[in-house]
Structure formats: structure tokens, C-alpha cells
Amino acid sequence: xxxxxxxxxxxxxxxxxxxxxxxxxxxxQTIHWTWEYTTKDGQQLGKNxxxxxxxxxxxxNEPRCTSCHVGYGYKNSETFAQxxxxxxxxxxCHDKKYFRPVFARSEGQPLSIMFAVMSTSxxxxxxxxxxxxxxxxxxxxxxxxxxxxxxxxxxxYENGVLDEITIxxxxxx
Length: 173
What we know:
The protein is mostly helical. The chain is 38% helix and 3% strand. It folds into two domains: 9-92, no CATH class; 96-164, no CATH class. The chain contains eight helices and two strands; from the N terminus they run αααββααααα. A hairpin with a 5-residue loop joins strand 1 (36-38) and strand 2.
């Protein structure tokens, strides 16, 4: 599932949604997606209904805007209204840096603990539904994203192998 080269952000999102099926819909309810805000006196502010210092021209500023706002492909308010969760850019928040604090908090612990947490709590919508092999593949992928050196053999979950691997501080290059 994750052991491939992705050529577009949309491919990444579609893969994420396979396990995190509700996450896209949840993101679409946040200000990071809607780009809207209601003031205390009821005025609606945002990209589709007011010009301000940030939303003068979304089309020419899209790379800057989407550094926080998590949707891609915005052209105008009509196309925006037709967008669905496949237009959520998961990597705005969940790039390789996302996992660094998780590994930092886990330093000194066996990798089996992280595997156990993943395989019993993820995906949020259906914990534990994947095979043990799929969970260990995701764990290997996250380790590689976080620049941990690969081992000589494929990561395995059998025979206590994950108990023998200790999470260490990531080596800086």
C-alpha cells in the first residue's frame, strides 16, 4: 500500500483515505479547509466573501495559502463547493516531520511497543483490521520517512524481532 512511489499529492490522499476514511470529512469541517471565519458580530470572513491582506488573489498566492490551508485545486467558489475529501492534502500536516516527535518520545523503547499501538488503534475508523504484515510495512515506511537507516533484512513482526529493535535518537546528516 505505501511501498511505492507516489507521483501526485492526490495519490497520497487516496491512499491515506483507504484507512482514514473519516479523516478527510473531518478536515473539511475545519478553518484550514473552509478558509472561513465568523466574527463575534456575525460577519462572515474568508476567501470567497471578502478581500483582505491574505486573500487578495488566491490563484496567484495559492502556494503560500495552501502552506496552511489543506486543500488543493481551488479555482473559485463554485469549484470549491464541488470538491470532496480527495482534494485534502494530507501532507500539509503529515509529512516526514510529523513523526519525529513520536519517535523522540519513544527513544529507548522497543519497536514492538509502537507496532502494538499502531495495530490496536489504527486506523481510527476500524482499528486492527489490517494484517500484521500491513502494519509492519506501514511502520517500516514511517521509519524510512523519518530517516532511520534501513536494516539488512525486511522488517518482520514474527518471533519477537520487534522486541529486539530499540528506537534510538535519529542520526542527523
